[in-house]
Structure formats: structure tokens, C-alpha cells
Amino acid sequence: MVHLTPVRPYRKQTISAVAIETEFQILNTLLADKAVQLQLTEYRIFEHFCAWEAIDSKKFGFEVNYPTHFELRDKQADLNFIKAAREAATLINSATLQIELNKQLVRIALPDDDLIEKIDKELGRGKAASLKAEW
User: Angle between the 95-109 and 113-134 helix axes, to the nearest 10 degrees?
Assistant: First the structure.
């Protein structure tokens, strides 16, 4: 049985945003764990089916993909926060702060980890170049 206390539809008590965020993180972890268990179960069912049919299961290239993240973020609120922070960062005039805010923006806006990593490296190179220009 899954422990789904964080999914209560009605609450009698008012709780803080931090408590709600913590509950969502717990729920995300529980759902990811269930996804891994389901994926493993499907592989085992396929192997049993192939054994029953006297078929080599390895030659089929059977693949099961379940999501690993079930995070529910308010991306629009995060983007608005980054936008306001970038406007405030122009007053501070810090290249490092601008680069870090740009990295956060990329992490919110793009789902592809490889692309995020590539952009992080580009921003890191830009940071190194801007630091050399300041000296």
C-alpha cells in the first residue's frame, strides 16, 4: 500500500508553504519509487512470458520507460521570480549573479538534461571570459 498522506484533498489545519513543498517532495519520491517498481515488474512479466513461449527475451530489445520525476512546480511563478531577480541583479552589477540566474532560468525552462549541461558549460566559459576582462 502506498503512503499518500501528502495527497489529502482537504485539510483542517493551515500549513506553511515550506510544509507543502516538503510534502510534494515526499510524494515525488514515493511516485518515483513506484515507477521503478512497476518498470521492474514489467520486465519480469516479459521475461516470464518469453520463457512460457520458449523465446529468447534478450533478442527483442524490450524496453520499459517510466517517468522518474513527478515534480509539480509552478514554472510561471519561478520564471517571474527569476525575471524579478534579474532586474534587481542589474542594480548590483555582478556578472556572477547574472550567470547564476541565467543557469536557474535554463533549468526551469528546458527539460533536456544534456542541453542544460551544455548551456551551463557555455555560461561557465562566459563567466571565465568576463572575469579575465575585469582584470
Answer: 170
103, 76, 109, 77: which is closest to 89 by C-alpha?
103
Domain ranges of the chain: 5-60, 75-134
Helices 95-109 and 75-92: crossing angle in degrees, nearest 10, is 170
- CA nearest neighbour of 69 among 118, 26, 31: 31
pLDDT tens profile 66-116: 888 777 777 888 888 888 888 888 888 888 888 888 888 888 888 777 888
- Could you tell me which of 70, 72, 61, 73 has the C-alpha nearest to residue 38? 70
Return d(Cα 72, Cα 66) in angstroms, integer: 16
Q: Is the dihedral of CA 49, 55, 59, 60 positive or negative?
A: negative
**Which residue from 76, 75, 46, 74 is spatially nearest to 61, judged by alpha carbons?**
46
